[in-house]
Amino acid sequence: MLVIGSGGAGVRAAIEAAKYGETLLVSKTLTGKGGCTTMAEGGYNAVLRESDSCEIHFEDTLKGGAYLNDRDLVEILVREAPLRMQDLLEWGAVFDVTDCCEVAQRPFGGQRFPRTCYAGDRTGHEMMSTLIDRLHSTDVRVESEVNVISLHSEGQRVTGAIGLDQRGDLRVMLADAVVLATGGGTRIYDISTNSSSGTGDGYALGYRAGAELIDMEQIQFHPTGAVYPYDARGRLVTEAVRGEGGVLKNVEGERFMKRYDPDRMELSTRDVVSRAIATEILLGKGTENGGVYLDVTHLPRPQIESRLPVMLEQFLKFGVDIRDVPMEVAPTAHHIMGGLRITTDTATTLPGLFACGEVAGGVHGANRLGGNALADTQVFGKRAGEAAGKAKERKKAVDRIQVESQEKRLDTFLRGDLPPSAIARSLQAAMWEGAGIFRTGPLLEKTLGILNHLQTLHPKAASPANLAECCILQNMLVTSSLVVRAALLRKESRGAHVRKDIAQSWDAEHSPYAHTFISLSKEGIEQGALP
Amino acid sequence: MRELSVKVMRYDPSSDTSPHIQHYLVQVSEGARVLHVLHAIHDEHDPSLSYRYCCGSGQCGSCAVRVNGQPVLACMEEARDEMTIEPLELPVKKDLVVDMEPYLDRISPLVPGAEFRMPTADEVEAIKPLRSCIECLSCVSGCPALKVVEFAGPAAMRENMRLSLDPRDSCDRVSESVSEGLFTCTSCQVCWKVCPKDIQIPGKAIEKLRALANQKGLTLPRHQAVEKLVRETGRSVDRTCTSFLEQMPEVVEPYGEVKGTVGFFVGCMYNLRLPQTALDAMEVLRRNGIRVIIPKEQVCCGSPLIRTGQIDFLDTLKSRNINAFVFRNIDTVMTMCAGCGSTLKNDYETPFRVMDINEVLTRYGIDPPARLPLKAVYHDPCHLLRGQGIKNQPRELITQVVDLVEMPAICCGSGGGVRSGVPDEAAALAENRRKEIEKAGADIVISSCPFCEFHIQEHTDRPVKNITTVLLEGYREKDRKGAQTPSC
Asked: In Å, how far are A59, A364, A494, A515 from A66, measured between CA atoms?
């Protein structure tokens, strides 16, 4: 088995796959340090108490997802999240616990029960430490700092991957089954919470190999990203801040959420809170730095220190003591709900290729609940490892034609003329401008035009070691165009996707549409409600 | 935007014979971090610059580099003009990219036992301070011990302590730690001070593991002998000469006007091994208006026991020392041994204030001594610099009497029980000091800790002196000059 990606989903998949046979984990970063799991702060949703139930978690997730979720994937998510939490605990994860030795839980947005398990505000980091620990106890072979630039196929069937090592030398890795666990890609936006590795590689790899992707227009803008200093813009300010009692205020000191969602206030779903903040800022009620206030100064200092230590430390580094002064926040591109279409066994539409974690679509619908992504990595990571592990052994052979085609691709980069970082900056600005929180048909068309133009430019690799940067830029371009094309296909506002140019008479639950879909050979939007 | 002038160490082992420093002028935004300077170099000047980064928010531990010699996370450290950016002190793969994997592999994974038991809230609270490690290896880069001896390093020791606190782990992490070099740590505290997550590895991991090792009978024989001596005599070194305490009255009055009064905690080394240094210090204090009260019943501070994990007798020592000063209504206790000072400040809860002699002298100010025609290099004692945060005060005093040259502040190897327990390592570290001293081209070495002074003196041909001894020499020179000057 070949697992691509070393975040929460990839490492979980590799641990599982190793039970079935020889497994290779390949990561473009140092294993365990890339991806967004390690940055995830708030928590992991799991039904653990008698007074909670999987049915309620299911309903919350569906409602939060604007009913665009695949029901059977959500069913699995809520049923198996507690089991995978138990795996983590048995492997040594240090979650906060109650006085009764139960995993502690806190309230998160859009959920009727406080079911978000946490390790302070470094929950994802705690999970990664545990997973890497566990990975070291398996026979998984790990290749760090190798960029996969193409999947290797035999007809439709995916049979491996072609990668670039740090020196820029090609590596071909063949496998009976390939798990794509490359995470998300909101680095395609100028303002993003993502790790530098969130460049949408998996969407692009899957798309180029012929896989079908769904709902790529559904981009979650996290309501609370840092706004200052400039280079730290977009840095995640965890939802746990609001879960612990933090309140949002505009520059006039008004708790404006009462005008947008008086029942749930700050703990409304992320799409609603993001739009509320963006609207306040557009109305001129934002701060000088272009944000609104997120205030925890009324909370007891020890609560801030023990439950939000990372936030406290990060803001202190930037000269703000959140115990005394409110934070300034604004929406930031966070999560791609869409992705490769998968079955409950994480099989994509291509034989031999499985997908799990953020790169897969369908679990979170049109808006993900905070705390469901970490659970997703473990539930579907495990399923992907198992499915890949059970794949039949096959005779494998390197296809010279595919390798040569990659060599040719790389050769053009050595003869390019523009630094990839310059093209990336244009792309990020265009996406933020034209495919952000509020969208219109004409603006999306214009953005697609810019993307098409950027695709005609020639990124330059200064040396073989810089080739990967050019490949990653192309992944960002492909992912961006998938987002914009899907956004044009969905002629309704739903969840995180808002089309200001379209008036609609239905609410999400009664939408005449289901998934958007895009592959090399077709694109469209499914009619009728989801099964 | 603002322009910064920065230096970056560049090295490509496949083509360069040695690393070199490259100078860049870069434009960055207000509030930019070191990482953004690296991005600016890579994007605008030289795409061949290699460096690692991922999360950009201090959580993944990919981007640690040294800025002006100090390990920092590039993504969190504010960029400054004229800074020098170098890789961590680990094998360099290219430019700022170092080989982290061999060290990361030394961090032990948890091995679940047959039966699962959820940790209690108390256990979680005990584990948490050790758990926020992001494995950036800043501590490994800074650790002096693992550069001269086989040692798994601070990051691995931290995890071993965490595992030994975790009811789910099934291995004997204490014996493992001992075989991985637990007793090679000199307690220099660098690992803690460079840790971006402020994990107190020496106090919360190393010393705790050593205490657990003690319970298993794994304490080194030389350390056991010290413990026995403390129990029997109240002192961690044996008597070879007339002690300082025996030579002194209980109160030492200054020559002139009384500017302040302090109680004096002398410590075992200055009492029994280097009493003359303590006598010199008393003379300097007398000349500067400080009245000194010296309770004779004071005993060892317990530092040699704490550092080696032998803590059974500690409370007895603590109460004897605290009472000795409390009975005399002393509100300020002065130490001149860096180790005692650090222990009284960090391991005791005292009803009085504790000040190092350098703090006392700079606070009250000193009568200027004559300048001596000497070039001195100052060795920062770990327990003064990192244990007490005292860096400028010794320099303020030294520069009043001699010319000062600097050398990097690195442990001499005498602390943490290493001099007695792992003498080869202690010698190797002192040998590194000797080379630095030679490089600095100094006539004398000045320090402010009896362990450092005694240990370094064994390894260098330059005289090693305490600050107060040099000050006293300055005063005597002044007296001599004054006597020669005809009065008219």
From this structure: 11, 9, 6, 12
From residue B435, how far is each of B403, B410, B439, B456 by CA, in Å? 20, 12, 6, 11
Can you give the pLDDT at residue B488? 52
The CATH number of A400-503 is which of 3.20.140.10, 1.20.58.100, 3.50.30.10, 2.30.22.10?
Answer: 1.20.58.100
Q: Tokens standing for B360?
A: 């006392």
Q: Which residues of chain A have pLDDT under 70?
A: none
Total beta-carbon pairs less than 8 A apart between chain A and chain B: 139
DSSP B43: I
Q: Which residue of A has its CA nearest to B100?
A: A30
Distances (CA, A) of B40 to A178, A183, A468: 37, 26, 18
Structural domain includes residue B69 = yes
Q: Of B80, B96, B112, at which residue does a domain stop?
A: B96
The encoded tokens of residue B456 equal 């370094």
Instruction: Say if residues A35 and A10 touch (Cβ distance below 8 Å).
Output: yes
Q: Which two structure tokens, joined as six digits, stand for B255?
A: 């020559």
Alpha carbons B356 and B334: distance in angstroms, whole number: 5
Q: Which two tokens stand for residue B44?
A: 């605008």
Residue B376's domain spans which residues? 368-481
In tens digits, what is the pLDDT along chain B, a chain of 488 residues?
A: 899 999 999 999 999 999 999 999 999 999 999 999 999 999 999 999 999 999 999 999 999 999 999 999 999 999 999 999 999 999 999 999 999 999 999 999 999 999 999 999 999 999 999 999 999 999 999 999 999 999 999 999 999 999 999 999 999 999 999 999 999 999 999 999 999 999 999 999 999 999 999 999 999 999 999 999 999 999 999 999 999 999 999 999 999 999 999 999 999 999 999 999 999 999 999 999 999 999 999 999 999 999 999 999 999 999 999 999 999 999 999 999 999 999 999 999 999 999 999 999 999 999 999 999 999 999 999 999 999 999 999 999 999 999 999 999 999 999 999 999 999 999 999 999 999 999 999 999 999 999 999 999 999 999 999 999 999 999 999 999 988 766 55
- Please indicate whether, in this complex, the C-beta atoms of A229 and B109 are within 8 angstroms of each other: no
Chain A residues near residue B125 by CB distance under 8 angstroms:
none
Tell me which residue of A347, A366, A380, A376 sits closest to A514, measured CA to CA.
A366
Chain A residue numbers with beta carbons less than 8 Å from the beta carbon of B124 are 94-97
Note which residues in 403-442 of chain B have CB less than 8 A from chain A.
none
Task: Tell me if B72 is assigned to some domain.
Answer: yes
The predicted-structure confidence for A413-428, as pLDDT tens digits, reads as follows 999 999 999 999 999 9
Selected catalytic residue, list A12, A242, A275, A307 = A242
Q: How far apart are CA A497 and CA A502, in angstroms?
A: 12
In this structure, whether the domain defined by A229-333 belongs to CATH 3.40.50.1970 is answered with: no
The whole-angstrom distance between residue A359's C-alpha and the CA centroid of its chain comes to 7
Question: Which residues have CB under 8 Å from A358's CB, separation 6+?
Answer: A9, A36, A183, A184, A335, A336, A339, A373, A376, A377
Q: Which of residues 7-36 of B touch A (CB under 8 A)?
A: 28-33, 35-36
Q: How far is B273 from chain A (nearest CA, A)?
A: 45
ipTM of the complex model: 0.95
**CATH entry, A2-218+334-389, from 3.30.470.20, 3.50.50.60, 3.40.50.1360, 3.40.250.10:** 3.50.50.60
B/e letters for A70-80, b = 16+ CB within 10 Å, e = fewer, are beebbebbbeb
Q: Check which CATH number belongs to the domain holding B26 and give it.
A: 3.10.20.30
Q: Determine, yes or no, domain membership for B456.
A: yes
- At residue A530, the pLDDT reads 77
Residue numbers in A near B197 (CB within 8 A) = 313
Residue A242 is among the residues annotated as catalytic for this protein = yes
Assess if residue B339 is contained within a domain: yes
